[in-house]
Amino acid sequence: MSARTKKDLDKVRKQCEKLVSRRGLLSAGAAVIPIPGLDIGTDVAILMKLIPAINEKFQLTPNQIQELSPELRKIVIVGGASMGVGLIGKALTSDRIVSMLLRMGAKRIATKSAVKYVPFLGSAISAAISYYLLRKVGYAHINECYALARAVDQQEARARAEHRI
After folding, report:
1. How far is CA 60 from CA 9, 77, 146, in A?
2. pLDDT tens across 56-104, in order?
3. Higher-scoring residue by pLDDT: 31, 12
4. What's the rounded Cα separation, in Å, for the pair 61 and 49?
5. CB–CB of 67/154 below 8 Å?
């Protein structure tokens, strides 16, 4: 992992937030279409690509984590496992994504499915819920990646400082 400053990580965070917002609009667009299951399927497909893209930007893909020293790898694995979304450095499956979506927004998913069939207003509500839920998951994952990347970078800086003395 290359040395990064807080400013570098802030820039990566902003890029990821824009990416999540754009993908949220795709999710909202799919939610408007009154086909059962299309919105959830779209959300899963979006997240299957979005989560690895965020991991890549923060240098937290499974391959990048394996290249870390054992001490740094432990920070990422233990830290990532203890966080809410918990998808850092893990192989993604649609089951894992669905489970995480349900954990983070089960009531909203049920509401979104139910209101979708109310003429006019139902589609708008469903789209808003889809956008909100995808952004909630995406931003939570970004915050987890940011925190872990900062911890790894700080630990690397400490290790470099100790070797200079």
Report:
1. 13, 10, 10
2. 999 998 888 888 888 888 888 887 777 777 788 777 888 888 888 877 7
3. 12
4. 13
5. no
Token representation of residue 89: 């450095």
DSSP 139: H
83 neighbors 100 (Cβ within 8 angstroms): no
Q: Phi, psi (5° rounding) for residue 85?
A: -75, -45
3-state helix, strand, coil in the chain (%, to 5): 80, 0, 20
Sign of the dihedral through C-alpha 79, 88, 74, 65: negative
Residues 6+ apart with CB under 8 A from 162: none
Q: What is the pTM of this model?
A: 0.86
Closest CA relative to residue 33, chosen from 123, 131, 125, 135 = 123
